Amino acid sequence: MRRCTACFRFHPGRPTFCSYCGRSFDLRICNRGHENPRAAQFCAACGSADLSTPGPPASLLHRLSGAVLYLFVVFILSVVALSMTLSALHSIDGEALSGPLVALVLMLGVLYWTTTLLPGPIKRLGAKAGRALWGSMRKKKGRHD
Length: 145
Hints:
The chain is mostly helical. Helix content is 54%, strand content 6%. The chain has 2 domains: 1-57, no CATH class; 60-120.
């Protein structure tokens, strides 16, 4: 599944272009279908100057939400594996753990939804705060070197 960074719509599978706004996903593609980097001005294979317009690069919040989703999935799978191991070793009733697991899955869904569907001004504010934090961390690191 892909999410267009221009119109914020989801598309099943791995399409080459967004079916709503027509932009390509993170690549520039010529009329003959050759894939080129985002910064290319001409096709590297055929030299064509007629390249598609890619969607804007993924924002920091978009990449962060993907990382958070990945970490939550790993965490939930670890909890499930641990609970299954403990129930096998200690004969603990697995139904007692089903409630917390459902709560974790729901929290994961809400977290992903809120971080990917925030309005533009809130996303920009979060991105500015992230850049400021990153800049201050880099300055501190530079002083200690």
